[in-house]
Write a structure and sequence with these properties.
Rossmann fold, binds iron/sulfur cluster, 18 helices, globular, disordered C terminus, binds 1,3-dihydroxyacetonephosphate, alpha/beta, five-stranded parallel sheet
Length: about 425
């Protein structure tokens, strides 16, 4: 199975059948870096907030280098830097970048990996902005975290900003008050998905809240319900809804909060009964998966096992055989002892890599259109070579730093997550 980059190239030139979601995917990111927007890929139609970081033009020597030259330069720079630098790669990164990662994982594992390597002077984070911020918060002050392309954000993380969350919190406090009930549980606990800015993690730290990832969302919600009567969950409505539903909370008790409307667009009564208030954010990669795709996979591949990420809409999670984080999906496939057909609902780079890794199984992406995460796709080997060679010269490019006034409460919320222990929610329901 070819890499996603190769598949895009072959489809674009007509050498292979199939479809991509944008002809611009064939271009290197520096072609579209100067343009506004998230770039080609699954979030290209999302609204990019004002002030979102942009990546400046990298030198021509990196833009014009062949694939082979970039490979040789990255290898030489990594060899020269040795253990002084650690390259981290998220599962959704392109193969051409992942092959240089010293550690590949999901966002929870990458946060732990960053924290576990105090000897690394620099951490080159091949992932997206919120992950690099988290690494900076969890690592020592003298460790530098580098994001090879500053435009590698996350459209979902951008759907909740600190001002809108502060405003929502003020309205909820006015409605519920701040006094705990007879059992000592406060009216609301804020829970932010890892896919959020450091400012929102700091907000949770300051307000008795916590961070979660898709690999520990159920554990974190249990933690929150031990301390609060209800949860304000942001930014991903789907992860919040799917996790709470698997814990037995009725969907009617999960109103959505639209930050552009008073009381999030809800009647006060609905909010009084609420158990989980869901921010109205979503991931454009996982929004692409549908029940119709699952039905087609089941019709065409009898016995197929359908695995999806909990950022998918509820109907898709309900129609799948199991839902869980990227790590859960990888482990579920690794655990299959008999040749099996898997239809997977998550980012295409990861699905294709699993297919190559496990040739004994048939593994395919539920979405037939090749449409990578636009922002993960911003990291290209040219940027990796650029930041690594700068480190060899003693220069730090694209450093991500979180101000200590934000980092300190954000660390509190992250440490609460790292310390939270799994409870009783069945693992097969939501991949904890
Ligand atoms: P994981 O937490 O499973 O790595 O997912 C991160 C992400 O961005 C999913 O879209
Ligand atoms: Fe963000 Fe979705 Fe991309 Fe993950 S896959 S980084 S949630 S846009």
């Amino acid at each position: 199975m070819s890499s996603v980059d190769t598949a895009i190239r072959l489809i674009s030139t007509g050498a292979r059948s199939g479809a991509t979601c944008s002809p611009d995917l064939i271009d290197a990111p520096w072609v579209f870096d100067p343009r506004p927007g998230y770039g080609p890929g699954s979030s290209m139609h999302d609204v990019i907030p004002v002030g979102t970081p942009r990546q400046g033009q990298i030198p021509a020597e990196y833009r014009e280098a062949s694939k082979e030259e970039l490979d040789a330069r990255i290898e030489a720079a990594k060899a020269a830097l040795g253990e002084r630098v650690m390259v981290l790669g998220h599962f959704y990164q392109r193969d051409e970048v992942v092959k240089y990662a010293d550690f590949v994982g999901d966002s929870f594992q990458l946060a732990n990996a960053a924290k576990a390597h105090p000897e690394a002077e620099a951490i080159v984070f091949c992932g997206v902005h919120f992950m690099a911020e988290t690494a900076d918060i969890l690592t020592g002050a003298d460790q530098r975290v580098i994001l090879p392309n500053l435009a590698a954000g996350c459209s979902m993380a951008d759907m909740a900003d600190i001002d809108s969350v502060e405003e929502a919190w003020a309205q909820l406090e006015a409605l519920y008050g701040t006094e705990p009930d007879a059992s000592g549980r406060v009216p609301v606990i804020p829970v932010t998905y890892m896919n959020s800015s450091a400012a929102l993690k700091g907000f949770c730290g300051r307000h008795g809240g916590i961070v979660c990832t898709s690999s520990n969302a159920a554990t974190v919600l249990e933690w929150a319900f031990e301390r609060g009567q209800r949860v304000l969950f942001f930014p991903d409505q789907h992860l919040g809804r799917n996790t709470a539903k698997a814990m037995g909370i009725p969907v009617e008790l999960m109103p959505m909060w639209n930050p552009n409307k008073p009381l999030g667009g809800n009647a006060g009564d609905a909010l009084l009964d609420a158990r989980v208030i869901l921010w109205h954010g979503f991931c454009s990669v996982h929004k692409r998966f549908t029940v119709a795709q699952i039905e087609k996979a089941r019709a065409e591949h009898p016995g197929v096992r359908v695995l999806v990420h909990p950022e998918c809409p509820m109907e898709v999670v309900d129609a799948a055989d199991a839902a869980g984080s990227t790590d859960f999906i990888g482990k579920a496939i690794a655990a299959a002892t008999e040749p099996t057909t898997f239809a997977v609902g998550t980012e295409i780079n990861m699905v294709n890599r699993l297919a190559a890794q496990y040739p004994q199984h048939e593994i395919f992406c539920l979405d037939p259109v090749v449409c990578p995460c636009s922002t993960m796709y911003r990291i290209h080997p040219g940027y990796l070579a650029w930041v690594l060679e700068a480190l060899v010269r003693g220069e730090t490019l694209n450093r991500i730093t979180v101000d200590e006034t934000v980092a300190e409460p954000a660390r509190v919320a992250l440490e609460r997550m790292l310390a939270a222990k799994p409870g009783t929610t069945p693992a097969h329901v939501i991949g904890d």
